[in-house]
Design brief:
CATH topology of the largest domain: Growth Hormone, Chain: A
CATH superfamily of the largest domain: MFS general substrate transporter like domains
Shape: globular
CATH class of the largest domain: Mainly Alpha
CATH architecture of the largest domain: Up-down Bundle
Low-confidence stretches: 1-35
Order of helices and strands: HHHHHHHHHHHHHHHHHHHH
Mean pLDDT: 84
Structural class: mainly alpha
Number of domains: 2
Largest sheet: none
Radius of gyration: 21 Å
Distance between the termini: 30 Å
Helix content: over 70%
Length: 426
């Protein structure tokens, strides 16, 4: 849901398997040293619920929005491409933000931007303003995408798998609920604007836990001595083999995920399913992904090496793609199940971001690089699948392309499977 790294990003010295991580690591500037806490966990889950609602609600109502605002085909294409552009470009700025302000304060601003953007785009009558306010909302999501793995590392260092699984499951639930209910809400209120704008309330709710946490972090920073707030050595994942492997794995699995979300229903319709049934099969991939999102991080946190998980996910996806090419109608529920299992690569890579960094500063740097670079790769998925489908009139070539992307993903997965830390790859 890939091209090799550009030649300017040279690999570091040979990989070194580190010893045990230090018992305690310094937090980035402006971050409270407090660990754990129910309020932090609740805040993370509320943020995670918001991370795709603004995107999937837009996709569900795109036809109504296009007619209502008079969007041209080009403008509609820009709107659907905005998420990957925002996640790639704006997400890369997050480490800079965290070096200047406490993470809770950054999250407060991110959720406010998300809520404001969703309200403004739901009330505007201008296509240009709609695009700009959508970008504002997506900026909030882009920042939150990067921060959550860092917060897991900082506040729950000994429960990385469990907490990552919890917030990944919340993300999946938010994605599914928004996609399924946007149209019914719009119909109930007689306007697409209601189906699009209602999710601003969820973003506003996510602000609440982070306000006291931001105030607490601000007080802690003011009381801290200069030695405590001194910034640690800068981590630059783009100059390491591990950083690029993480980015390629994230990008290849996201490429497949976006391609599946964008084209699977059409594949089933071409196979003879009614539109309603094709939509239900697509929804099944997301719904079956909920327990996968919960259990995958816990498994990853307990294994000495991630190779069994990487290879298992590859096997599931390979079987699904081959099955869709050979018998898309006869065994469709089985292919949906295998696709859902294969998409466990997403919670796996989110967990691995925390497992491959010693410090919160290293985690946010690795998260920003892997996700921002990965989303650039991911943007190619739906586009190339569409081009191949139009050029060949069938699904053999598009599914062959996804198998090639899966091979690239697996190769990168073998690199990130062995335990080591980004801070050690200078």
């Amino acid at each position: 849901m890939t091209p090799p790294p550009p030649p300017t990003a040279t690999a570091p010295t040979a990989d070194v398997t580190p010893g045990p991580a230090p018992a305690a690591t310094p937090d980035p500037p402006g971050v409270s040293p407090a660990r754990g806490g129910l309020l932090v966990l609740v805040g993370m889950l509320l943020v995670a619920l918001n991370l795709r609602a603004a995107v999937t609600s837009l996709g569900a109502l795109l036809d109504e929005i296009r007619v209502g605002l008079g969007l041209s085909g080009t403008m509609a294409g820009l709107v659907t491409t905005l998420p990957t552009i925002a996640f790639a470009g704006l997400g890369a700025l997050t480490p800079w933000l965290v070096r200047r302000w406490a993470a809770p304060r950054v999250l407060v601003l991110a959720m406010i931007a998300l809520a404001a953007g969703q309200v403004l785009r739901a009330v505007t009558g201008s296509a240009a303003v709609f695009v700009l306010t959508s970008a504002l909302a997506l900026a909030g999501i882009a920042v939150a995408n990067i921060l959550l793995p860092m917060l897991v590392k900082q506040h729950f260092p000994h429960r990385t798998g469990l907490v990552t699984g919890a917030y990944t499951m919340a993300l999946t639930v938010g994605t599914t609920v928004a996609a399924a209910s946007a149209v019914p809400v719009a119909h109930a209120f007689g306007s697409w604007r209601a189906g699009l704008g209602v999710w601003a309330g969820l973003a506003a709710l996510a602000v609440i836990p982070w306000v006291p946490l931001a105030l607490r972090a601000r007080a802690a920073r003011r009381a801290a001595t200069p030695a405590v707030v001194a910034a640690p050595a800068r981590v630059r994942p783009g100059r390491t083999r591990l950083g690029w492997a993480m980015a390629v794995y994230f990008g290849a699995q996201s490429l497949s995920g976006y391609a599946i979300m964008g084209w699977l229903a059409q594949l089933f319709r071409d196979a003879g399913y009614r539109p309603e049934a094709a939509g239900l099969l697509l929804a099944g991939v997301t719904a079956l992904g909920v327990p996968v999102a919960l259990t995958m991080p816990a498994l990853a946190g307990r294994l000495a090496t991630l190779r069994p998980l990487v290879l298992s996910l590859t096997a599931f996806s390979t079987a699904a793609y081959v099955g869709l090419a050979l018998a898309p109608r006869g065994l469709a529920p089985l292919w949906v199940l295998l696709l859902a299992l294969g998409q466990g690569a997403f919670p796996l890579i989110l967990t691995t971001i925390g497992l491959r960094a010693r410090t919160a500063e290293g985690t946010v740097a690795l998260s920003a690089f892997a996700q921002s670079t990965g989303y650039v790769i991911a943007a190619l998925g739906p586009l190339l699948v569409g081009i191949l489908y139009e050029a060949t009139g069938g699904w053999t070539a598009p599914l062959g392309f996804l198998l090639v992307a899966l091979a690239v993903q697996t190769t990168a997965g073998m690199v990130i499977a062995r335990p080591r830390y980004i801070e050690d790859e200078r």
